[in-house]
Records
---
Amino acid sequence: MAKLNARDESRRRSRAVDASDRADYSEALERGLLVLTAFDRDDERLTQAQLARKLDLPRATVRRALLTLTHLGYVIAEDRIYRLAPRVLTLATAYLTTNPVSRVLQPVCDGLAEDFQTSCTAAVLDGPAAVMIARALPQQPLAIGQGLGFRVPAVRSALGRVLIGGLSAERRRRYLLDHETGGERRLARIEAEIGEVAAQGYAYVADEVEAGFHSIAVPLRRWDDVQIAALNVGAGTERLPREDMFERVLPALLTTARKLQPQLV
């Protein structure tokens, strides 16, 4: 096996629980997953060289990962270009069908989207993003890539701020140090804002993720009061005014969260 570079060695140390686990950590599996997640809307088709540059990995490492993923059916090779195969969807399906939270929340999102005639989403925290595990729009098709699994920046979104606010103060600061840039002053401001979100029990964000769009989110807690997800309603500011967000939507979200708690395990 090739010697790890400094970045990979740091990643390995941070993810291994203790020294005894390091020998069991599979860098080959990690790099294969990195290759899969390198494809996105902006990079739907990539060459080996492009993947190697994007991931800062040796080209030989990327080549081995691509050949393995192609053999397993997760990647399609077209001449020297690679793209994801439909089989990748089985990974998301496995999560959604084995996660009872998603099954409980999808009909809830459907109902709220219909009530307010705008989008309703449930999400969990995944690294620097809030990832959607249930989503609905009122009698409208979702744009490709904006349904389940769609990611929004956690620090800039109402969903993400609620999710970060659910962390302990120590974990919250460590999270922001790992995923936010801009200096100590900006970090302190964001930390204070998210602390306020945690105290008040909701987050409202406007014009951050998308101009002319605002959303409000509340935490979802399971039966033992541990926060496990966030629920939001979002809309264009012309479709749903700010006052409606606080006077109509927020009470409905809080009531829904309370009713859901006994069902979330």
Note: The two ends are 42 Å apart (CA to CA).
---
Amino acid sequence: MSVINFGYASCTGVSILYVDALKSVGVPSRIVGTPAWNGVASNGNHNWVEVYLGVDPDCTVDCGDGWYFNEAYPAGPGEMFDNPCDKWFCNSGHFNPNDQLTTQVFAAKFSQTGNVNYPMAWDLDNKQIPGIDRSTYYMNVCSKC
């Protein structure tokens, strides 16, 4: 509502609005993000959006599982779903397999089917939001950018 009422919101707010808009027209989408860049809370957190576009049958390298990601806002000029490296956060500075402090990424999901939760940076003790650990995917994709 803050986006509509005030014309702006945090990355979480605009991501929720983006997901709501996509879902309202039948596009599978979800909130995803990190509670702490490089595992350090004082580095800040960030949320963005994953959209299910299906697995590309012509893909041969880093095909993923059909989920692609994009910023809700402020998206950079020319950001595309098929180029992870055009997102400001998708780089080896945030996802470096050689660093001791790794950035963890989680996607929210509808129902609890395991013991993974979606950690919210503003309420890390809250274990009520079911999640999917997407850390390995982002490490594999973004460490190459």
Note: The chain has one domain: 10-142.
---
Amino acid sequence: MRHFSDAQIFAQIDAILAEKPLEKVVAFACNWCSYAGGDTCGTSRMQYPASVRLIRTMCSGRVDGKFVWYALSKGAPLVLISGCHFADCHYINAVTWTQRRVEKLWTKMEKLGIRPERLQMEWISAAEGKRFAQVMGEMNRLLGEVSPEEVEEARKILVEQGEKLLGASV
């Protein structure tokens, strides 16, 4: 798929975190549901915090673990993966892959000493503009709970792990 290569996704993460990374949430949003929920939010003139920066993916199942590790290693205090509700997945059962992947990431984060709450997972449909705004507000609230020291400690851990994490798909 054009515009959804690993290199392009990494470049978007870099762009988001280039300035004031401690003030940003990196959010991966499924094109069909979560990203469209953001559109519904906007067209309904609802607002959500500017701290949340969306990266559109065709499916939440496209969000490889290495994208999460990369964002955290670049100083993201919080990462969100958001996709379709289970019954609404446009790729049949890709959201189940997403859930399994995130659960594995949470386990690995705990083992590494990184607080798993720094990776969030939410299901938002295209029609749920209000829910989109609420979830983004909650992400902004959680952002305030992550200290600069915690971000720096995670960065050190992830730099040590290096290729082990970025080269592996979780």
Note: The chain is about 50% helix and 15% strand.
